[in-house]
Amino acid sequence: MFARIIREGFVAGLVGAAAVALWFFLVDLIGGNPFYTPSMLGSAVFWGLRDPALVEINFPTVIAYTMLHVLLFAFVGMIASALACVIHKFPSTLFLAVVFFAIFEVGFYIVVATMAAPLLGHLAWSSVAVGNLIAAVGMGYYLWTVHPEIKQDLIEHPLGETADGE
To answer: What is the pTM of this model?
Structure first.
Protein backbone atom coordinates (compact mmCIF):
# COMPACT_ATOMS: atom_id res chain seq x y z
CA MET A 1 0.00 0.00 0.00
CA PHE A 2 2.78 2.43 0.94
CA ALA A 3 4.67 1.74 -2.31
CA ARG A 4 1.48 2.38 -4.27
CA ILE A 5 0.94 5.72 -2.54
CA ILE A 6 4.55 6.76 -3.23
CA ARG A 7 4.42 5.65 -6.87
CA GLU A 8 1.01 7.16 -7.64
CA GLY A 9 1.80 10.29 -5.68
CA PHE A 10 5.05 10.81 -7.54
CA VAL A 11 3.34 10.37 -10.91
CA ALA A 12 0.48 12.67 -9.87
CA GLY A 13 3.07 15.22 -8.74
CA LEU A 14 4.84 14.98 -12.08
CA VAL A 15 1.53 15.55 -13.85
CA GLY A 16 0.82 18.64 -11.73
CA ALA A 17 4.35 20.03 -12.01
CA ALA A 18 4.41 19.50 -15.77
CA ALA A 19 1.00 21.14 -16.16
CA VAL A 20 2.06 24.25 -14.24
CA ALA A 21 5.45 24.41 -15.99
CA LEU A 22 3.82 24.12 -19.40
CA TRP A 23 1.20 26.72 -18.50
CA PHE A 24 3.79 29.27 -17.39
CA PHE A 25 6.01 28.45 -20.35
CA LEU A 26 3.08 29.34 -22.63
CA VAL A 27 2.31 32.49 -20.62
CA ASP A 28 5.97 33.53 -20.79
CA LEU A 29 6.22 32.62 -24.48
CA ILE A 30 3.17 34.72 -25.34
CA GLY A 31 4.69 37.54 -23.28
CA GLY A 32 7.86 37.24 -25.37
CA ASN A 33 10.07 36.11 -22.49
CA PRO A 34 10.31 32.28 -22.32
CA PHE A 35 11.45 30.83 -18.98
CA TYR A 36 10.95 34.16 -17.22
CA THR A 37 8.68 32.78 -14.48
CA PRO A 38 10.95 29.93 -13.32
CA SER A 39 13.95 32.27 -13.52
CA MET A 40 12.14 34.88 -11.43
CA LEU A 41 10.87 32.43 -8.84
CA GLY A 42 14.19 30.56 -8.72
CA SER A 43 16.07 33.83 -8.23
CA ALA A 44 13.67 34.76 -5.42
CA VAL A 45 13.90 31.37 -3.69
CA PHE A 46 17.63 30.70 -4.07
CA TRP A 47 19.16 34.16 -4.18
CA GLY A 48 16.59 36.34 -2.42
CA LEU A 49 15.94 38.50 -5.47
CA ARG A 50 13.23 41.06 -4.78
CA ASP A 51 13.47 43.35 -7.81
CA PRO A 52 11.87 41.92 -10.98
CA ALA A 53 13.95 44.28 -13.13
CA LEU A 54 17.06 42.31 -12.09
CA VAL A 55 15.79 38.92 -13.23
CA GLU A 56 18.20 37.26 -15.61
CA ILE A 57 17.05 34.17 -17.43
CA ASN A 58 19.67 31.50 -16.94
CA PHE A 59 19.21 27.79 -17.21
CA PRO A 60 20.91 26.73 -13.96
CA THR A 61 18.28 28.78 -12.09
CA VAL A 62 15.49 27.37 -14.28
CA ILE A 63 16.71 23.78 -13.72
CA ALA A 64 17.17 24.25 -9.95
CA TYR A 65 13.74 25.83 -9.54
CA THR A 66 12.16 23.13 -11.72
CA MET A 67 13.69 20.43 -9.52
CA LEU A 68 12.32 22.11 -6.39
CA HIS A 69 8.97 22.52 -8.13
CA VAL A 70 8.82 18.81 -9.00
CA LEU A 71 9.80 17.77 -5.47
CA LEU A 72 7.10 19.95 -3.93
CA PHE A 73 4.48 18.67 -6.35
CA ALA A 74 5.57 15.07 -5.70
CA PHE A 75 5.02 15.67 -1.98
CA VAL A 76 1.57 17.12 -2.65
CA GLY A 77 0.83 14.23 -5.03
CA MET A 78 1.71 11.71 -2.33
CA ILE A 79 -0.69 13.38 0.08
CA ALA A 80 -3.40 13.34 -2.60
CA SER A 81 -2.66 9.67 -3.35
CA ALA A 82 -2.91 8.78 0.34
CA LEU A 83 -6.24 10.61 0.49
CA ALA A 84 -7.46 8.63 -2.53
CA CYS A 85 -6.62 5.38 -0.72
CA VAL A 86 -8.38 6.57 2.42
CA ILE A 87 -11.45 7.67 0.44
CA HIS A 88 -11.70 4.20 -1.09
CA LYS A 89 -11.67 2.54 2.33
CA PHE A 90 -13.81 5.20 4.02
CA PRO A 91 -15.96 7.09 1.47
CA SER A 92 -17.14 9.48 4.18
CA THR A 93 -13.66 11.02 4.20
CA LEU A 94 -14.19 12.53 0.75
CA PHE A 95 -14.47 15.92 2.42
CA LEU A 96 -10.79 15.56 3.42
CA ALA A 97 -9.79 15.81 -0.23
CA VAL A 98 -11.79 19.01 -0.61
CA VAL A 99 -10.35 20.45 2.60
CA PHE A 100 -6.83 19.42 1.54
CA PHE A 101 -7.25 21.19 -1.80
CA ALA A 102 -8.54 24.36 -0.12
CA ILE A 103 -5.71 24.35 2.45
CA PHE A 104 -3.15 23.73 -0.28
CA GLU A 105 -4.42 26.64 -2.37
CA VAL A 106 -4.56 29.08 0.54
CA GLY A 107 -1.18 27.92 1.81
CA PHE A 108 0.35 28.29 -1.62
CA TYR A 109 -0.87 31.87 -1.95
CA ILE A 110 0.43 32.72 1.52
CA VAL A 111 3.86 31.27 0.71
CA VAL A 112 4.03 33.10 -2.61
CA ALA A 113 2.87 36.36 -1.03
CA THR A 114 5.44 36.17 1.78
CA MET A 115 8.39 34.91 -0.28
CA ALA A 116 7.97 36.93 -3.42
CA ALA A 117 5.73 39.90 -2.59
CA PRO A 118 7.69 42.43 -4.71
CA LEU A 119 7.66 40.05 -7.66
CA LEU A 120 3.92 39.48 -7.66
CA GLY A 121 3.28 42.42 -9.94
CA HIS A 122 4.98 40.43 -12.70
CA LEU A 123 3.24 37.19 -11.81
CA ALA A 124 -0.48 37.74 -12.33
CA TRP A 125 -2.65 36.07 -9.71
CA SER A 126 -5.02 34.96 -12.44
CA SER A 127 -2.18 33.07 -14.17
CA VAL A 128 -1.23 31.44 -10.88
CA ALA A 129 -4.85 30.44 -10.23
CA VAL A 130 -5.27 29.00 -13.72
CA GLY A 131 -1.98 27.09 -13.42
CA ASN A 132 -3.01 25.62 -10.07
CA LEU A 133 -6.43 24.69 -11.42
CA ILE A 134 -4.88 22.94 -14.42
CA ALA A 135 -2.49 21.07 -12.10
CA ALA A 136 -5.29 20.07 -9.72
CA VAL A 137 -7.47 18.81 -12.57
CA GLY A 138 -4.57 16.87 -14.08
CA MET A 139 -3.55 15.32 -10.77
CA GLY A 140 -7.16 14.56 -9.87
CA TYR A 141 -7.83 12.99 -13.25
CA TYR A 142 -4.75 10.79 -12.96
CA LEU A 143 -5.72 9.62 -9.47
CA TRP A 144 -9.31 9.11 -10.62
CA THR A 145 -8.10 6.81 -13.42
CA VAL A 146 -5.84 4.72 -11.17
CA HIS A 147 -8.54 4.45 -8.50
CA PRO A 148 -11.67 3.48 -10.49
CA GLU A 149 -13.12 1.95 -7.33
CA ILE A 150 -13.68 5.46 -5.94
CA LYS A 151 -16.12 6.21 -8.77
CA GLN A 152 -18.10 3.10 -7.91
CA ASP A 153 -17.99 3.94 -4.20
CA LEU A 154 -19.34 7.42 -4.90
CA ILE A 155 -22.12 6.01 -7.08
CA GLU A 156 -23.13 3.61 -4.31
CA HIS A 157 -22.63 6.12 -1.47
CA PRO A 158 -22.83 9.64 -2.96
CA LEU A 159 -22.75 11.36 0.41
CA GLY A 160 -20.20 9.00 1.88
CA GLU A 161 -22.66 7.14 4.06
CA THR A 162 -21.84 3.61 5.09
CA ALA A 163 -23.89 0.47 4.50
CA ASP A 164 -25.39 1.08 7.97
CA GLY A 165 -26.77 4.41 6.75
CA GLU A 166 -24.30 6.40 8.85
So the answer is: 0.84
Q: What is the dihedral of CA 150, 69, 18, 16, to 10 degrees?
A: 20
Reduced to 3 states, what is the DSSP secondary structure of residue 116?
coil
The number of angstroms, rounded, from the C-alpha of 89 to the middle of its chain's C-alpha atoms is: 24
pLDDT at position 79 is 92
**C-alpha distance across the termini of the chain, in Å:** 27
Distance separating alpha carbons of residues 149 and 63, to the nearest angstrom: 38
Distance (Å, whole) CA 157 – CA 79: 23
Distance of CA 51 to the CA centre of its chain: 26
Given a cut of 60, whether residue 18 has pLDDT beyond it is: yes
Residue 52 gets which letter from DSSP? G
State pLDDT tens for residues 51-80. 878 889 999 999 999 999 999 999 999 999
Distance between CA atoms of residues 107 and 128, nearest Å: 13
Distance CA 61, CA 35 (A): 10
